[in-house]
Amino acid sequence: DFFMEKDLPYNIERPKFEKQTSFVQIFLIIILVTVIALVLAKFKAIKLWKLWFFISIVFVLTVSLSAFFNEYIAGFLALVGAFFKIVKPNVIIHNLSELFIYGGLAAIFVPVLSIFSISMLILLIIGYDMIAVWKTKHMIKLAKLQGRLKVFSGLLIPYGKDKSAILGGGDIGFPLMFSGVVLNEFGIISLIIPVIVTLSLFLLLYFGNKNKFYPAMPFLGAGCFVGYGLVLLIS
Predict the structure, then answer these.
(1) How far apart are alpha carbons 162 and 24 in whole angstroms?
(2) Of 103, 62, 55, whose CA–CA distance to 83 is shortest?
(3) Contacts by 149-154 with C-beta closer than 8 Å and gap 24+?
(4) Neighbours of 168 (CB within 10 A)
(5) For residues 194 and 196, what is the distance between their CA atoms, to the nearest angstrom?
(6) How do residues 37-82 score in pLDDT, each as one tens digit?
(7) Phi–psi pair at 158, nearest 5 degrees
(8) Of 127, 96, 130, 119, which Cα lies nearest the Cα of 175?
(9) What spatial distance separates the first Cα and last Cα of the chain, rounded to whole Å?
(10) What's the pTM value of the predicted model, to 2 decimals?
(11) Would you call 162 helix, strand, or coil by DSSP?
């Protein structure tokens, strides 16, 4: 497996999940993390929020950067990146670090997922995303809070004057994990999936109302499955 070729740094072990059912544990972790975030937001625990983000960023960036450097250099660079991301945020550092963060998440979780389990996870996330944005709207509240704090997971895409679009971290991470699992099974042809997902994102950004929140995963998830269908047709 492509994602199993290199051990994680500092002897970090991947979760001991069964591949066919791992989507259940991962989805429950996502729900738990969301509850923690809502509690922190409710009680305005800003310092704790930033500390949580700092530790998470250092951990995942270390995993990601260890693909290019030894674990000690990777750890140092992760600390520097997390510091500037949290303490001295700007668009370039934020987006650059985000690109590496989701590679680290893929390195951790892709090996414990099968195509069935990642497909089920994507479907669960699609449903959850629609409920969180259109029904309960708690994801909008979290997005606005993170925007005010300038501490959030996801890409920041500036447009116009003092305006920006935010693509949530999950909207990047889950399609990347899907692509990674398919890559393990079908090889380089699987790179067609990120292309289709990117096209789906472009269509959402182009046709969407610029003053409205949208759950991105229904569109990106559809891109994942269309891309996977093309992989099956070509391979």
Answers:
(1) 40
(2) 55
(3) 149/46, 149/49, 149/50, 150/89, 151/49, 151/50, 151/53, 151/85, 151/86, 151/89, 153/53, 153/98, 153/101, 154/98
(4) 22
(5) 6
(6) 899 888 888 889 889 999 999 999 999 999 899 999 999 999 999 9
(7) -70, 145
(8) 119
(9) 18
(10) 0.90
(11) coil
Q: Which of 194, 149, 144, 189 is nearest to 171 (CA)?
A: 194
The C-alpha atoms of residue 16 and residue 209 are separated, in whole angstroms, by 42
3-state secondary structure 36-105: HHHHHHHCCCHHHHHHHHHHHHHHHHHHHHCCCCCHHHHHHHHHHHHHHHHCCCCHHHHHHHHHHHHHHH
Q: Which residue's structure tokens are 């690109």? A: 99
Hey, what are 211's tokens? 């003053």
